[in-house]
Predict the structure.
Amino acid sequence: MTYASLPTGYDVVVLGGGVAGCVLAARLSEDPGRSVCLVEAGPDYGPRPADWPEKVRNSRALPRDDVWERHTAFYRIRARVLGGSSCINGAWNTWGSHADHAEWTEAGGERWSAAALEPYRSRAVERMGLRTVPDHELSPWASAALAAARELGYGEVDMGRPGGPGYGRPLINSVDGLRWNAAFAYLDPATRSRPNLTVLDGALVDRLSVRGGRVLGAHIVREGRPVTLTADTYVLASGTFGSPGVLLRSGIGPAAHLRDIGVRCELDLPGVGANLSDQPGVFVPLAPTDDLNKALAAKEAAGELYVSRMLVRAAGPSCPDGAWDLHLLPTAGPPLFGGLPPGQYEAGISAFLMKPASRGHVRLRSADPLEPPEIDPAFLTDPAGRDLATLRAGLEKVDQLAQALRTLASPSDGAPVRGLSDAGLRERVGTYWHPVGTCAMGPGEDPRAVVDGQGSVHGVRGLRVVDASILPTVPAANTQLPVLAVAEMLADTLRH
Ligand SMILES: Cc1cc2nc3c(=O)[nH]c(=O)nc-3n(C[C@H](O)[C@H](O)[C@H](O)COP(=O)(O)OP(=O)(O)OC[C@H]3O[C@@H](n4cnc5c(N)ncnc54)[C@H](O)[C@@H]3O)c2cc1C
């Protein structure tokens, strides 16, 4: 393909307009002297939230329209819209443990400690308008689960900060059912009116042109036209599945894989696309009593039925002291997949592995940017079997919680989880949708490392990656708030 060059270059081009991309575009364009171009493959529905599709606005359900693949395996779901996965996600936010920060500090230096990230966490909480779940959004199931966790001896914790195991309500970026996504929060009308900020939607990033350790341009396709953007700094923010794809198409990645897909190797970087880490979980279904169904129906009629509004942080057998490596997540409402007759709901409790040891990969099938990548999360495959052991411990804790909730729902006959074989558990495994690690941060001497602690790609000048893909390990948290905070922090390093 021959790419036409745009007449002007930018100071910074941000490639991918998701959670991290929106933060970067907003913060970097605060300086009127810096020109910033934000490139997103999906649509931009504009500065007014009222103009956005109802499904994207409604935080009571997970929408599936603005995605890369409509019909695909659940773990591959990824947004394709300005605002990224914050437009299609559960809109709830938690923070990880001190053990997570110790891992990140080892990989990226002191700026990744809990104390150093705290101002950026607070900044993200404020800009996203995060608030703790209000009482009226608790369903009878969530209220009962809060009481049951207390009865079982868990202490109440602040889910938006590091701390210890315990129960509590998450922070939400939702107000009366309106999902307040990262585009609303960071690309508000005032930010968008800055003359030094350009937002290009419907623009697919094909690849970067890289020669002699420098990026010469970013090749994008917009409205069917190939165009080359040039900049002093290129920041890749295409997410855990998208960013390694752009690097691979640009000739940055494992040499053997590049050969397989017919791309000339510019830099042999074996970590690109490796180290995929996502949080698997198993849902334990429970049969709601008639009373619970009626109470949920009343909540739904009032427009206040939210499927999940509390969680428990718990520790499995190999968890470090003071940390947690499990989320127990009680849910009740319309089923995530499929449907039920009116007045009937799905209830249950999931156990999620927050610190999985298993590692998967993202690879390309060809150099065509439109061909879906090969994504293998390799759930529950670590050779030592630690993930299966932690999951089984989590399911025991789910049983205890279910016992304490038995007046509202009882174990359902259809899908027993207790006593499942390893293969049976693997068949039942789902995801929390928090993939990270495919452009992992680490010191230059680590052959698996793709970027350093500032997101700079090892061996290439003027190229950074800033998104969930650079986290070398997944935090014991939902990843949106950590990614927002990390993007806030790395935007600062780009400004100074
Ligand atoms: C279904 C679902 C539910 C989730 N629920 C929660 C939750 O409740 N709480 C929570 O904390 N986290 C949740 N997450 C995870 C959270 O949304 C992500 O961790 C976060 O969005 C990651 O931010 P990011 O910037 O790395 O990537 P994204 O936000 O995914 O953004 C990447 C962007 O890059 C664009 N892009 C990719 N490739 C290209 C290309 N070649 N050209 C141009 N643009 C490109 C994409 O279209 C997308 O907009 C959920 C995720 C999903 C998918």
User: Anything to note?
Assistant: The domain at 134-169+280-353+383-428 is CATH 3.30.410.40 (Cholesterol Oxidase; domain 2). The mean pLDDT is 96.
